[in-house]
Amino acid sequence: MAKSPVTDPNEDFPRWYQDVLAKAELAEGGPARGTMVIRPYGYAIWERIQAEVDTRIKRAGAENVYFPLLIPESYINREAEHVEGFSPELAVVTVAGGKELAEPLVIRPTSETVFGEHMARWINSYRDLPLRLNQWANVVRWELRPRLFLRTSEFLWQEGHTAHADRADAAAYARRIHLDVYHDFLTKALAIPVFIGRKSAVERFAGAINTFACEGIMRDRKALQLATSHELGQNFARAFDITFTDQADSEQHAWTTSWGASTRMVGGLIMAHGDARGLRVPPAVAPIQAAVVVVREDEESIARAGELVAALSERGVRVKLDAAVHVGFGRRATDWELKGVPLRIDVGPRELKDGNVTLMRRDEGGSRPFAIDQVAAAVPRILEELQSDMLAEATRFRDGSVVDAGTVAEAAEAGKSGVGRIPWALLGTDGERALLDEGVSVRCIQREDGSLPEAEDEPGLVAIVARAY
Amino acid sequence: MAKSPVTDPNEDFPRWYQDVLAKAELAEGGPARGTMVIRPYGYAIWERIQAEVDTRIKRAGAENVYFPLLIPESYINREAEHVEGFSPELAVVTVAGGKELAEPLVIRPTSETVFGEHMARWINSYRDLPLRLNQWANVVRWELRPRLFLRTSEFLWQEGHTAHADRADAAAYARRIHLDVYHDFLTKALAIPVFIGRKSAVERFAGAINTFACEGIMRDRKALQLATSHELGQNFARAFDITFTDQADSEQHAWTTSWGASTRMVGGLIMAHGDARGLRVPPAVAPIQAAVVVVREDEESIARAGELVAALSERGVRVKLDAAVHVGFGRRATDWELKGVPLRIDVGPRELKDGNVTLMRRDEGGSRPFAIDQVAAAVPRILEELQSDMLAEATRFRDGSVVDAGTVAEAAEAGKSGVGRIPWALLGTDGERALLDEGVSVRCIQREDGSLPEAEDEPGLVAIVARAY
Questions:
Q1: What is the dihedral of CA A121, A126, A127, A130, to 10 degrees?
Q2: Residue A282: enclosing H or E segment and its boundaries?
Q3: B30 to chain A nearest CA, in Å?
């Protein structure tokens, strides 16, 4: 087997990550500090992710909007908790149109404040509720230690903001987004078996009365927060005067939620599935699901490969023909592995003589002959199997990383090299702070069977603890 | 007929435009100067536009990428013509992360300079060509006289940048984008019968050796430039050192193109199709193609309307149920007209008795009874007819606005109140400057039959002249 073009992830995981980004041509640094250039292959993955998430958001009844990039500084100062969280991260425009601005403009770190302002205008009566809005946009938060896709000064994301007539409706909607949008997408499309649960008071989003999170376990056994949804109670509505007249004609503050996920998910995909040969992309979000590779210059191979591409394309498979026979086969094979394309179909004269092509699943690595006249019909099913096998493999890895802890010290130990699980009643906020001193945090609090708790103080909950990105 | 909720466009077109934006809930001003909040209905139209254009861009072989929002000031200063064009429009970040920046960062007015920088890195040999990239993003150009969708300080757009091995390939690609992406989209999806042609040297994009433009004629008979594509020769490649080794192993500068279209197209849609009752949206880009309206509280009507919505939805029609019977029928009918939904299907007890619903085409205005058990099957065909009728109507309007001029004075006269057409040989650059003094500009230069010239100096070309947005 040819030497892998990337560093061994078991030796140096951060360097492996950088190698995959560069060699698979996913992204590179931009000219300004902490910014990122997303290259065609990386962006195509993001487009697939975006489409899958967007479909689920619309199914959950939210509508897309677009708010401006630039926000007057006074808006940001309106919500005290907001200022505290974002002020050191802001990028500020002081000159525009050739003149010093009377009031500086901030590049949105989120659009929260503008959503608040306009939602207040759009909501009058209970008939206007629920109001469910979402935005896909770029945001800027100045980063001193940037890392492509995981932490960049500018990133792409979606942020949802909704207003409801009562607490129960807001709570149900935050839960629905958490489960039907994020959890469903992450497991079914990204094939990442996330831990789901509530955030502890320490880890909760500022201003939220409850935060749900999806936490993935990467191949270095560190946790990555992939999506969050928040119940904001009436805090946000009070700060922005979001009120409505209820059915009894009395004025009430609305109950709001917010929720988001970002290009960080691309980083999660790389780190949850990648291996020593490079990236591995689950078929559901793969820009190229199958590469049909002409092994070497041969008229018959080129003709059969072309037919195969047409047949696969007709079946809705995202397929790419590789007939670059002027490049050695080995180098091309390594490159398709590096790019993590789920399925490779090699078409060469030797196999064709027996009516076969060679099929290679990127997740398993092995190759096997397959009858050329049956392969196109078989591929959609193979891709489905591959998708669920990737989820199963990641689930085994995740579960194998978990150690049940009976004391805070055991939880710290487990969390330093993998994932610890400890009864929340045993850990508590004091134990949580002790873990933080060791670089381990509570990722989420869930039921023992892994499901979502109804309430914070439900008996029998467990805390999932780990180091985190 | 109820009073229209919008100003009569024949009386005050600009005010009519503002009314439509506000009353149809398309967009409103944002908190910072010249910025825009795109509301759900307006954004849904933009999403349809984006999807249609993106499909065509991908079909033309370009791949999407994402470059950073913030660009070091030195990048912008690199291309002299660039600076001249954009400098007064720039928004500049001088503070970030709580500190004064050593080098100010400019918010991209386009990503041209960063494309140039990275394309130079990615291109080595002729094998890397053509390189065809596109980006969907927000850009900022400070506007002193903003007008929603038409001219805003921040707008959403796509910009394509490609590099080719020779002039002919670059020229063919700029032409392909102009015809297969923009012209095809504008006529087939937006139903706007644009004038196509080359820009005169006076109107050409700075740094381009040729600019193709699509010019729509609005209902006030002013022209709106809806999309442009440029051949940049080797100018851009020289400024950014975009070179490649050709097959003879000698180093060459690449030949580049760039091309773009923006949220301005939403403004074009409003002004090309709107009428005294509000917006009219062509089915291809309509977020709601058909509204099924329950006329009044009636169990049978509600049941039948629900079935109809399901049947239409199954046929792929984007349909919405309006069962808000607590609001008067007249008000709801006016609102669907205002929003420009192509087809309205009213379901009420009187018509149901005869097995009918009432069908109303927004473009024609009249209503007619239709058998309820046949309507779902008929709607897709009716929508297709409606789409091509809208194009035909807009074409008649456009053609009716054109006056053939035999002198520069006649062309100026025609251009001031509509569209003038004059032999380009007769007008020339001197005539063009005389027109400009009258507020009339050359929108494009085309063949007499309306098709795209091969060369600037082709005999028999005509100039299309008008006032423009």
A1: 80
A2: none
A3: 6
Calculate the CA dihedral of residues B205, B210, B216, B220 and round it to 10 degrees: 50
Q: Among all chains, which residue has been given the structure tokens 């400098």?
A: B87
Name chain B contacts of A69, Cβ cutoff 8 Å.
35, 69, 107, 138, 140, 154
B88 at interface of A, judged by CB pairs closer than 8 A: yes
Q: With CB atoms and an 8 Å threshold, state whether B37 touches A70.
A: no
A156–chain B nearest CA distance, Å:
10
The tens place of each residue's pLDDT in chain B, 469 residues long, gives 567 899 999 999 999 999 999 999 999 999 998 999 999 999 999 999 999 999 999 999 999 999 999 999 988 877 666 556 667 799 999 999 889 999 999 999 999 999 999 999 999 999 999 999 999 999 999 998 999 999 999 999 999 999 999 999 999 999 999 999 999 999 999 999 999 999 999 999 888 999 999 999 999 999 999 999 999 999 999 999 999 999 999 999 999 999 999 999 999 999 999 999 999 999 999 999 999 999 999 999 999 999 999 999 999 999 999 999 999 999 999 999 999 999 999 999 999 999 999 999 999 988 999 999 999 999 999 999 999 999 999 999 999 999 999 999 999 999 999 999 999 999 999 999 999 999 999 999 999 999 999 998 899 999 999 999 9
Residue A19: half-sphere exposure toward Cβ, Cα within 13 Å: 20
CA distance A153 to chain B (A): 9
Verify whether the Cβ–Cβ distance A117 to B31 is below 8 Å.
yes
Q: Does A36 touch chain B (CB under 8 A)?
A: yes
Report the DSSP pairing between strands B441-446 and B462-466. Answer: antiparallel
Alpha-helix runs per DSSP H in A158-286:
167-176, 184-188, 235-240, 264-273
Question: Residue A69 is nearest to which of B46, B65, B140, comparing CB atoms?
Answer: B140
Tell me whether strands A99-107 and A402-404 are parallel, antiparallel or unpaired: unpaired
> What b/e sequence results for A269-293 when a residue is b if at least 16 CB atoms lie within 10 Å of its CB, and e otherwise?
bbbbbbbebbbbbbbbbbbbbbbbb
- Reported as a single tens digit per residue, the pLDDT across A193-248 is 999 999 999 999 888 999 999 999 999 999 999 999 999 999 999 999 999 999 99
Instruction: Please indicate if any CB of chain A lies within 8 Å of the CB of B102.
Output: no
What is the Cα–Cα distance from A128 to B25, expressed in whole angstroms?
A: 14
Reference A443, options A195, A175, A187; nearest CA is: A195
Beta carbons within 10 angstroms of residue B434's beta carbon:
16
CB contact under 8 A, B32 and A156: no
CB–CB of A65 and B117 under 8 A? no
Partner A contacted by B92 (CB < 8 A)? yes
Nearest one of B274, B285, B266 to B155, comparing CA atoms: B266
Tokens of A155: 């990133």
Closest residue, chain A, to B141 (C-alpha): A97
pTM (predicted TM-score): 0.97
Here the tokens at position B78 are 């690199």
Phi-psi category of residue B244: left, alpha or beta, with phi > 0 → left and psi -120 to 50 → alpha? beta
- The conformation of residue A298, written as its DSSP 8-state character, comes to -
User: What CA–CA distances, in Å, run from B151 to A170, B88, B146?
Assistant: 38, 15, 5
Residue A280 contacts by C-beta under 8 Å, 6 or more apart in sequence? A273, A274, A340, A342, A362, A363, A390
Neighbours of A422 (CB within 10 A): 25
Terminal Cα distance for chain B, rounded: 33
- How many angstroms separate the CA atoms of B20 and B275, rounded? 10
The count of other CB atoms within 10 Å of the CB of residue A306 is: 15
The two tokens of residue B296 are 């009044």
| CB-CB neighbors (< 8 A) of A90 in chain B | 95-98
